[in-house]
Amino acid sequence: MHLVQILLPRSDNAGEPFANEDFDCVKEELANTFEGVTAYFRAPAEGVWRQGKESGLDEIVIFEVMTEEVALPDWRRRRAELERLFRRTW
């Protein structure tokens, strides 16, 4: 069994917060696909990133799912969809 975590920003690159409905869609899709999901919305989670000499700090939401197998093509597709939905580039 594998634990997969998905870390999503609470706001976009311009600092605009995402709607709760955006996170609800992710939660519902994961729950349907993996027969369950754990979502951490209220935890004081922070993500730190560095790019060259620049760095930043994001508030994040964490989703966790358990899966028997990790299908890389499926996770790559899911990542591309989440990047588009949450308007971020990493």
Mean of residue pLDDT values: 87
Low-confidence stretches are none
Number of strands: 4
Quaternary status: single chain
**Strand percentage, roughly?**
25-35%
Distance between the termini: 28 Å
- What is the gyration radius calculated from CA atoms? 14 Å
**Total of DSSP H or I helical runs spanning 4+ residues:** 2
Helix-strand sequence: EHEEEH
Morphology = globular
Strand count, sense and closure of the main sheet?
4 strands, antiparallel
By secondary-structure content and strand pairing, the structural class works out as alpha+beta
User: Could you estimate the helical fraction of the residues in percent?
Assistant: 25-40%
Short account of what is shown:
With 90 residues, the chain is an alpha+beta fold. The protein is built from 2 helices and 4 strands.
What does this structure look like?
The chain is α+β, with helices and mostly antiparallel strands. The longest helix has 15 residues. Strands 1, 2, 3 and 4 form a four-stranded antiparallel beta sheet that branches. The protein is built from two helices and four strands; from the N terminus they run E-H-E-E-E-H.
Write out key terms for the chains shown.
globular; alpha+beta; 90 residues; four-stranded antiparallel beta sheet
Give the secondary structure arrangement, pairings included.
Elements: E1 2-9, H1 20-34, E2 38-40, E3 46-51, E4 54-67, H2 72-85
